[in-house]
Amino acid sequence: MKGTVLYGPGDIRFEDRETPKIIEPTDAVLRLAATCVCGSDLWPYRGLQPIDGPTPMGHEYCGFVEEVGSAVKSVKPGQFVVGSFATSDNTCAHCRYGYQSSCIHREFMLRAQAPFLRVPLADGTLVPTPGGMPSDGLVPSLLTCSDVLGTGWFAADAANVKPGGTVVVVGDGAVGLLGVLSAKQMGAERIIAISRHEARQKLAREFGATDIVAERGDEAVARIKDMTKGIGADSVLECVGTQESMMQAVGATRPGGYVGYVGVPHGVELNGEQLFFTHDHLHGGPAPVRRYLPKLIDLVLNGVINPGKVFDLTLPLDQVAEGYRAMDERRAIKTLLRP
Ligand SMILES: [Zn+2]
């Protein structure tokens, strides 16, 4: 088969790779129905995160079980499954507390921008869709459950979004937009999205944003304070991972409020004394997507949410390099790839 490999900044190649096979008895091999490019893939693509030689790419996936190892019990060949970007046994203490992305046996998935994928710990990582094969039209939305929606959902959950609450979402990438959708599902009354891009503002409104702030940095914080009678927001979702976005999130939160931060931090430093006087709750990290998968799959299959709308570019998998370019140049919010 061919798969996606990053060689260096801006250098994505779709090249011959070994077709994955069962290695451990707890593995499954999937034939992917769809995969995609993640905002976090852009960090190494832009040279902002060093790589150790040619690196196979991709960690968002859904598709058909092709083969399972001898110890796998809960998934069977032929089933349609969605899995998390982090593997988990779903039985250790961290998993039982709901933090499967800190599983003691965790591996971060790689190599998913390919037609076939080996998934370790299949029983604890993969969730089959109930009722068999979903219609092809639902595949993009099911794919979002694997990371981008699961991460937006965790941001809202970690930010303690409650019915009637006021929410700010920092970041208008796919995670931020699906954070808006998640906050709406959790009953937020007011959802303020920070965005200066018209297409993204429109999608944010479609997903449930009630207000848009186009300012940045301290000006955005001042504007949000203004909009909330000087109080600040109950819940702020930080979906970028830069110093500026983190400070915006902390600044926009009311004393006693919550910041859910899911943007992978790059060079973020927090001042302890400053933080002390904010009274903020901070909760974030790699999203425990596995915890949310059954619920999110259910919401998609029942037509309650349509998170697949974040894909505004669909390409055949062999054009993956163009998919990265389009996202890097912000011509696309998120690229769906079909093998
Ligand atoms: Zn575990």
Describe the structure.
- By secondary structure, the protein is an alpha/beta fold.
- About 30% of the residues lie in helices and about 25% in strands.
- The strands form three sheets. Strands 3, 5, 6, 7, 8, 15 and 16 form a seven-stranded mixed sheet that branches. Strands 11-10-9-12-13-14 form a six-stranded parallel sheet, sandwiched between helices.
- Helix 12 links the parallel strand 15 (about 315) and strand 16.
- Helix 5 (about 150-160) packs across helix 6, helix 5 packs across helix 11 (about 290-300) and helix 6 (about 175-185) packs parallel to helix 7 (about 200-205).
- The chain is globular.
- The structure holds zinc ion.
- Zinc ion (ZN) binds near residues 92, 94, 95, 104 and 105.
Brief account:
The chain is 29% helix and 24% strand.
Query: CATH superfamily membership of the largest domain, which one?
Result: Medium-chain alcohol dehydrogenases, catalytic domain
Number of strands: 16
Tell me the count of domains: 2
Distance between the termini: 11 Å
- What overall geometry do the principal axes of the alpha carbons give? globular
Ligand names = zinc ion
Main β-sheet description = 7 strands, mixed
What's the CATH first level of the largest domain?
Answer: Alpha Beta
- Could you list the spans in which at least 5 consecutive residues all have pLDDT below 50? none
Order of helices and strands: EEEHEEEHEHEHHEHEHEHEHEHEHEHE
Number of helices: 12
* Gyration radius over CA: 19 Å
